[in-house]
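To illustrate this point, what follows is a protein record of this kind.

___
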Amino acid sequence: MKKRIALDMDEVIADVLPKFLDIYERELGVRLKREDYWGTHKLYRTSKEVAFIRDFLFDKGFFADLPVMEDSQEVVRELQEHYDIFITTAAMEFKFSLEDKYDWLKRHFPFIHWKNFVFLGDKSILRADYMIDDNVSNLRTFQGKGLLYTAYHNTAEEAYTRVNNWKEIRAFFKQERMKDED
């Protein structure tokens, strides 16, 4: 039986950051530089002036056209040879995200069966051997090995194994397979 990987979608395989930067610029007339938001929640949580940007997450189509994280398709396909991959994404808070995310996954990851799409609200119910997520709160309740995917909002976190990109994920799981073979 293959080990399981629970794989988050937003900010792990789907790049939400460019969309937030575009909305911020369109609504506030300022294009943020990396140093303006890196290590913060400035894009939509820090102050009352920008809190309204979070409301765009509720719009139909917000999640439909997100860019794919570099190398994610290739590495996920490779991981499927050795692991059962489940896309585990919070899709209940934002009503329209469920359909947007489903369509996005079918378009960009057609090699993952729809039965391996897990749309949920609380990830604490997940049971897998590994979880890759950008949200520390999801990793806190996870009982397997958690990998923290670097995102602008989690840079200070040190409690989890950090992966910065999909090449590092490939290398991590190659080492895991070598350990399992010993």
Q: What stands out?
A: DSSP finds seven helices and six strands in the chain. The radius of gyration is 17 Å. The longest strand covers residues 83-90.
